[in-house]
Specification:
Blueprint: E1 23-28, E2 32-39, H1 44-50, E3 58-64, E4 67-73, E5 80-83, E6 106-113
Parallel strand pairs: 2-6
Antiparallel strand pairs: 1-2, 3-4, 4-5
């Protein structure tokens, strides 16, 4: 499996893309899950929720035949959900798909400014 560097706060989430679509997406790998939330000009409240400063993050998976959905609640906000789309994830290369092997695994969350492509700093 290819190793990638995690994006740093204030740096581009993807150095090859100066802007990101306003969306939520996530990737699976055999070792972890990565959730990207990209919005225009993230607020301090959104950053506080993303970085766990305004309450606990909660996650749930919904698994059905041909469907896998990641549900998340950051801070005191409502529940968000996003289906996993295999077509948006490389089969070989940087992000090989697969479910994490352990029952417990890391979920890396990134909040990015969709206009600049940069990972939002902590408030």
């Amino acid at each position: 499996m290819a190793m990638t560097l995690r994006p740093a706060l204030g740096q581009h989430y993807d150095p090859l893309r100066p802007q990101l679509p306003e969306a939520m997406s996530w990737r699976l790998s055999p070792s972890d899950v990565e959730l990207l939330i990209s919005v225009p000009d993230p607020t301090p409240e959104e950053a506080a929720a993303t970085y766990g400063l305004s309450g606990r993050a909660r996650f749930a998976f919904i698994e059905r035949p041909n469907v896998l959905v990641l549900c998340h609640r950051l801070g005191t906000g409502g529940w968000g959900l996003q289906p996993w789309q295999a077509i948006r994830q490389d089969e070989v290369g940087t992000y090989p798909p697969g479910l994490p092997a352990d029952e417990r695994f890391a979920i890396n969350i990134y909040l990015a400014d969709s206009c600049t492509g940069r990972v939002a700093p902590m408030p």
